Amino acid sequence: SPSVRIAPSLLSADFAFLAQEARVVIEGGADLLHFDVMDNHYVPNLTVGPLVCAALKPHSSVPIDVHLMTRPVDALIDSFAAVGADLITFHPEASDHVHRSLQLIKGKGCKAGLVLNPATPLTVLDHVLGDLDLVLVMSVNPGFGGQAFIPSALPKIRALRRMIDEAGLNVAIEVDGGVKADNAFELGAAGADILVAGSAVFGARDRAQAIAAIRERAQQ
Ligand code: DX5
Ligand code: ZN
Predict the structure, then answer these.
(1) Which positions are catalytic residues (predicted)?
(2) Which of 48, 140, 180 to mutate to test the pocket of ligand 1 (most atoms within 8 A of CB)?
(3) The CATH number of the domain where 137 resides is what?
C-alpha cells in the first residue's frame, strides 16, 4: 500500500536524551512521534505525562501522536492539547462517555482516535466511526514495548479497512505493537496507514535504516 507513515514510539528511546533521540528519528524519516502515556492503573506500567510532552514539543518538527493508556482520560486530553499534542487517542473502555471525550479532543483542534485492544471488537466503532480521524489497532496488549505481534490483528485490520471504505470515510488505521520490517508487508497489504514501531526502531543501531526498512516493506 502506498505512502505508509512511520511513527517511532519513544517508549523505547533513552529518556535521559529524549530531544536527541527524537532528532535522530525525525532526521531518519519519522512521520510522527508516538508518545505513550501509561498510568499504572489502566495499564501496569508508568511512563510520562504532559510535562515531558511540553519539553519535547519545541524539538519536534513532526506531529506528536499521544497514545493515552490511562483511566480516566478527559483531564489529560485537556493537558496534552495544551502542550501541543497533535493527535490524541484513548481506549474506549477508559472513558465513561466516549463521544464526549472525542468531541473534547476535536474541540481543542487535535486529531482524535480510539484504540482497540486485541480483544476489543470493531463494533465499539459502530456509532462513532464518522467522528474519528484515526483508529489505533493494538497488536499487543498495552503496557510494554518489545512484545510479540499478535497475528489476529491482521484480519481485524482488513475488516476495519473494509468498514471504513464501505462507509466512504477518511479514517486512518494505525497499528501498534510488535511491528517490524518482517511483518510490515502484511500490515501494509491489510490496509494500515500508520505503523508504530518502538523496539524495532530504537533497538536498531541505525534508526534511519530501520525506519526505511519498515516503510519499504509496508509499501511493497
Ligand atoms: C505498548 C505501546 C507501544 C510500544 C510498542 O503498550 O503502546 O507504542 O511502544 O513497542 P514495540 O514496537 O516494541 O512493540
Ligand atoms: Zn502506543
Answers:
(1) 36, 176
(2) 140
(3) 3.20.20.70
* 36 has catalytic annotation: yes
CA distance 195 to 157: 12
| Domain of 206, in residue numbers | 5-218
Q: How many domains does the chain have?
A: 1
Distances, alpha carbon 43 to alpha carbons 37, 69, 214, in Å:
10, 6, 27
Instruction: Report the predicted TM-score, pTM, of the whole model to 2 decimal places.
Output: 0.98
Q: 84 near 113, Cβ under 8 Å? A: no
Residue 8 Cβ inside 6 Å of ligand 1? The answer reads no
- ipTM value of the model? 0.99
* Ligand 1 nearest atom to the CA of residue 38, by list position: 6
DSSP strand pairing (33-38 vs 194-197): unpaired
Query: All 3 cell numbers of residue 21?
Result: 533521540
Q: Are 67 and 89 in contact (CB under 8 A)?
A: yes
Question: Does the annotation list 176 as a binding residue?
Answer: yes
Nearest to 103 by CA among 112, 94, 90: 112
Catalytic residue among 36, 39, 133, 193: 36
